[in-house]
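STRUCTURE REQUEST FORM
Protein name: MarR family transcriptional regulator
Source organism: Ruegeria profundi
Requested output: structure tokens
Priority: standard
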Amino acid sequence: MITPDPQTTRIWTSLLNTGQALLEGIESELKNNNLPRLGWYDVLLEIEKAGPNGIRPYELKERLLLPQYGLSRMLGRIAEAGLITREEVENDGRGQTIKLTPKGLAIREAMWPIYAEMLVNSIQDKLSKSEAAELERILRKLGAGS
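Status: completed
Returned output:
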């Protein structure tokens, strides 16, 4: 059996704890500002990037790397909040196109400054330019085998 050395275990634990703390901080700030969860931001952004013609759910799933069931539920909640519309695709009985509503765009735009501030406060302000470059290099190296 392969056993990681103690440093490898500490690195893994630190990566998980740091990532979780950063996510919780962003989620907390969004909640304090009566905004949706961070996962909604990514969905709204990808729909916005798709343009006025919208995006098909399978394309969105590929861009976000979410399981189909999770995305379907999330899209349902986002639609109920009036942030997106689902339109049937002509000549495709099961197909839909998802489009951002003006309210959805406004919410996505309201979320970004909070998200951006948390990134700056949590990462950018704590690392020198060279530390940030080194961390990015290391994380890319770790992710390369994934």
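Reviewer notes: Residues 6-32 form the longest helix (27 residues). The domain at 6-144 is CATH 1.10.10.10 (Arc Repressor Mutant, subunit A).
Form closed.
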